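Figure 2 data, in text form.
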Amino acid sequence: MISGLLTTLAGSAWARAALRYGVTALAILLFLLALRRSGERAGRLAERLATTEKANDVQRQMLEAAARRPRDRNELAERLRDGRF
C-alpha cells in the first residue's frame, strides 16, 4: 500500500517538477557556498601577502642599515669628523 503510494507520488508531474527545482536550488546553493569560500580564501591570501611584504620591507631596511654602518673605529671617527654620520 505505502510502496504503491510512493510510486504514484514519484511518478506524478508535480513531484518531478519539485524534484527538478529542488536539485536546481541545491546546485545554486552549492555554487554560492563555493564562491564564498574561495572569496574568503583569497582574502586570507591577500592578508598573508601584505604581511609578507611588510616583513620583507623591514628586512630590506635592516640590510641597508647594516650595509651603511661603519666597518671599524677609524671609519666611524672619520664620519663623525665629516658630519656624515
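Caption note: The mean pLDDT is 87.
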